[in-house]
């Protein structure tokens, strides 16, 4: 179809104008990135970053339709250096900046907050130090902020809790502290993933976390948070699927309200100071995949209702002060691949029903008061078994010859028992074995 000549002419002028302005901007972007590259010592990984190659085809660089740098994806390229020489003002269209898994050092410069369009910032797994610049809290388009696994110290800036669109918030594995009070912290209603694990958080359960009502994944593990697990937690955070409060100083009972967390898949509250026994309601949380309660002061018995958790893959009841026999019902846990019952005061036998746990890979019942024979059927029914630890009990009888059928077995600890007979010849077939 013929186009009127006027229109073509106007369109031509407009195109020319766009090309000129875009070229100038692109020039600034290229210049800024080249200057940064020089400051990084011209890494081999960035060899395509030069004046002859088109900016938009440089390694890790992606441009938007207007030809402006939209994303820098430089994950795991072995780059070392700092962000000090990056001219953030020259990259106004950058939305994604990913330096995860390199060797960056030094502080995160406040000037990063000039990247006005930034929605994703991943500086995880580097060696950034210093404190988190509060100016990051001014980047209102942030959706995803990952600063985990660095050497960041100081208080968590309260401004970060006011990011209006943030969904993924990960400050784990740093040296961060919380302020004496959280008065200036705000609830983060848009966040679904919240991780502050392995930092120096103290005091009771942080109120702003409790009020971040949309959280589905919460990891506060390996801090020094104390006081009770809040009774209101399930009401405030009803969408939780993953809850990790392990390795803290929580005390009191496992709150009965937890039964209301109908979507919870992983419950990790090991290594705290929890008391009051293992509550029966846990046996009705049918969606649980992971249940870690070990290294607490729980006491009491192993409830037989735990045998109803058909989805359960991991059960840690190690060193929890448990005084009971082992309920045979646990043998119904057909998806269980990890079970640790060691370092309690369990009595009676290892139930023969355990042969029903066909996915078992790692089994531990060491340092208890168990008696009787180790059921030989375990070793014919557990084809995936790699570790079996039952030392420090009072098992009797012969070491089962069926052990030879557990062909993947790599760790077998049976010492300090009253077992008799010789080591079965079949064990010679186990190429991975390390006893
Ligand atoms: C950074 O980039 C801006 C915009 O392109 C430019 O005006 C400024 O001079 C640059 N700053 C430095 C220190 O190069
Ligand atoms: C950060 O690390 C660099 C060396 O990598 C060091 O020179 C600097 O003093 C450190 N800064 C802080 C605040 O620890
Ligand atoms: C909560 O998360 C869902 C999806 O995970 C999202 O659709 C919803 O907008 C979020 N609510 C808020 C207040 O951000
Ligand atoms: C944990 O916090 C308590 C106060 O709640 C404090 O006495 C203790 O020293 C802290 N422990 C560590 C390892 O920081
Ligand atoms: C805490 O638990 C979550 C969910 O089960 C898991 O993904 C995460 O790796 C755990 N954190 C640590 C530090 O192990
Ligand atoms: C746990 O409680 C015991 C005694 O009640 C106390 O000595 C210990 O410091 C507590 N541990 C933690 C991590 O809070
Ligand atoms: C194992 O879990 C799956 C879902 O992941 C479930 O459908 C199945 O019934 C479980 N099997 C057993 C034997 O419990």
Automatic annotation (TrEMBL):
<keyword id="KW-1133">Transmembrane helix</keyword>
<feature type="signal peptide">
    <location>
        <begin position="1"/>
        <end position="24"/>
    </location>
</feature>
<dbReference type="Pfam" id="PF08263">
    <property type="entry name" value="LRRNT_2"/>
</dbReference>
<keyword id="KW-0472">Membrane</keyword>
<dbReference type="InterPro" id="IPR003591">
    <property type="entry name" value="Leu-rich_rpt_typical-subtyp"/>
</dbReference>
<dbReference type="InterPro" id="IPR053211">
    <property type="entry name" value="DNA_repair-toleration"/>
</dbReference>
<dbReference type="InterPro" id="IPR032675">
    <property type="entry name" value="LRR_dom_sf"/>
</dbReference>
<keyword id="KW-0433">Leucine-rich repeat</keyword>
<keyword id="KW-0677">Repeat</keyword>
<keyword id="KW-0732">Signal</keyword>
<dbReference type="InterPro" id="IPR001611">
    <property type="entry name" value="Leu-rich_rpt"/>
</dbReference>
<feature type="domain" description="Leucine-rich repeat-containing N-terminal plant-type">
    <location>
        <begin position="29"/>
        <end position="64"/>
    </location>
</feature>
<dbReference type="GO" id="GO:0016020">
    <property type="term" value="C:membrane"/>
</dbReference>
<keyword id="KW-0812">Transmembrane</keyword>
<protein>
    <recommendedName>
        <fullName>Leucine-rich repeat-containing N-terminal plant-type domain-containing protein</fullName>
    </recommendedName>
</protein>
<dbReference type="Pfam" id="PF00560">
    <property type="entry name" value="LRR_1"/>
</dbReference>
<dbReference type="InterPro" id="IPR013210">
    <property type="entry name" value="LRR_N_plant-typ"/>
</dbReference>
<dbReference type="Pfam" id="PF13855">
    <property type="entry name" value="LRR_8"/>
</dbReference>
